[in-house]
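Lecture 7 notes: from sequence to structure.

We start with a single chain of 510 residues. Read the sequence below before looking at the structure.
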Amino acid sequence: MSNNATSPRNRKAAMSPAQEAERLEALLCHLERLLPADTADRQRFREAIVATPPVCVRVNGLLPSHAQAVRSLLESVGRPVAWCEDTFTLGDRAPDAPLGNTLEVALGAVYVQAKATTLAARVLDPQPGECVLDLAAAPGGKATHIASLMNNQGLLVCNEPKQKRMASLVGNLERCGVHHCLLTGVDGAQLARSFHNAFDRILLDAPCSGDGIIGKSRGQLAYWSPEDAVRKSYQQVGLLRAAFHMLRPGGILVYSTCSLSTEENEDVLLGLLRRTGENAQILGIDGIPGIESSTGPLREDIATCYPESFRRCIRIWPHEHQTEGCFVARVGKQAATQGHTVEADLKLVAEDYATDADQMGDYVQQKWGIALDIPRGQQLVRGHRDLTLRPAVSEVIAASLPAFVRAGMRIGGLHKDHLFLSQQSVGLWGDSVSDRRIELTWTQVQQLFAHNHVDLPADCQSPDRQIRGEVICGYGPWQICRGVISREGDHLTGFIPRGLRHERIGRLIP
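Now the structure, written as tokens:
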């Protein structure tokens, strides 16, 4: 690169259509050389990688009633993804509003996620009760997927080193009802100084050039070059070594990118093996439907440059599954990292804790009829203004780790010993409330999202059960939010979080 070359930021703004076309052609040539020299196959690749992938959504199993409602609709209009039974392709069926402004997304019933990106969590295969790390977690698609597979049991540490991306991660974890999580915000190498041989499973979805997703993000072209991919690989090798250090012997580490180039994939794995020797093993990825034809062999003369075990990795080609490109590798660890015991410096496994917040659990049951089932290793924590459900190890880690951000899920706000249920609590447990529930029409739901209040007609409630005060606002199988009905019974004030409100809320499946 010449000395007078513009920075990536300025280069993006300065690109002309001709420059963009030139850079796109350079990228396509760089990637298609990895494929066998089949002209038809390479042409299909060229067409697929620049096409806009179909809309895919993943059902969030952490909100059972919402998940059941949306799954039945998706099964009737969508197409399930072979390797992820919770993900559906909507094809040409369009929602009646932008995806982010649909009821199903706002209530956390689904997460909009390309089907290629669901493969990483599926390969990781986290189990309830395990200690799991998502090393580069924002914006939260894979983290919420991992949480769903863990059923909110165990410990999920979500790390995001970029502060400006933390808000999206927090918002998505909250919206999806994740409460066994702990958030940190630090570089991977720094995190590894606190956790030695600690985690059962680790996902490193590494920051990359994104050369596999240009169909949805042409802006990536402004930053891409073969030299930039090599520079990215240096960072990726460092992150992968840090992740391997934090993995328990016998644990599973999944390395994934949304890049197809060998520079950011096979070469990065080589960087790990050169440091760890035989302690790191590239494992097979078996028993996952639909990926056999997705592995897309590298051209033989390129494949032979790498260890035979690298053929066990998966490279998803856009032209084979009409999705974005990605790479997934499954890595095992045989022995503890030299110089450190198997136990972590910050112990991750905790026994049950009883606290003075337990009485608030009794209050929730008396007030709303909601029995809070506190999973083992989690606890209710009563603060000055909030009641939180969080991993019991949070306090220990918060005191020992400068990068600690927050933990758990807010159950509700406290004021003079009164608990106001949070939006997450309504989504998780609101379906068990029957005697303090008001059923809304779709028009009223739209009014709530737009203005947070609704005028109630006189016949909206049966004469024998005039509800006043706090209620759960429902719409069929959906728990919309907490609300308050006025003393006169003619006005409903809703409490939809500001970030979810919209003037024209729509439906994912009209």
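Residues 226-246 form the longest helix (21 residues). Keep this in mind for problem set 3.
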